[in-house]
Amino acid sequence: MTDPIADYLTRLRNAIMAHHRIVEVPASNLKKSITKILFEKGYILNYKFVEDGPQGTIKIALKYDPVTKQNAIKSLKRVSSPGLRQYTGYKDMPRVINGLGIAIISTSKGVMTNKEATTEKIGGEVLCYIY
């Protein structure tokens, strides 16, 4: 696998389109950080890190509206790829849907959202957009 973050986002996207309640993805520290951000921002219902085997897995419970059955995540877009990395400074931080969505940034102080990176005044690699 050349791009584990794209695989993570694709598994989430496919589970949303199939209206699954739970999706399992192989674990890594970067994926765990992204999952924690998605939980804190209210895009997923819950998550659990399962330590089985050398790598482990992440079980993610997806969040749906009980009335309309719409998912909390409308779109997942990978920005930076292994072939073309996308970096940004804190002054040029991207805004997703005029501030309604989030951009996940990998910085020297860890993985955080675009708003947190702007307040910390640090730039980094733009991993993905979520709204």
TrEMBL record:
GO terms, biological process: translation
Domain of life: Bacteria
GO (cellular component) term, any one: ribosome
GO molecular function: rRNA binding; structural constituent of ribosome
Classification via Pfam families: Ribosomal_S8
Keyword Ribonucleoprotein applies: yes
Keywords: Ribonucleoprotein, Ribosomal protein, RNA-binding, rRNA-binding
UniProt keyword annotation of GTP-binding present: no
Stated family: Belongs to the universal ribosomal protein uS8 family.
Function per UniProt: One of the primary rRNA binding proteins, it binds directly to 16S rRNA central domain where it helps coordinate assembly of the platform of the 30S subunit.
Subunit structure and binding partners: Part of the 30S ribosomal subunit. Contacts proteins S5 and S12.
The name this protein goes by in its record: Small ribosomal subunit protein uS8
Lineage: Bacteria, Pseudomonadati, Bacteroidota, Bacteroidia, Bacteroidales
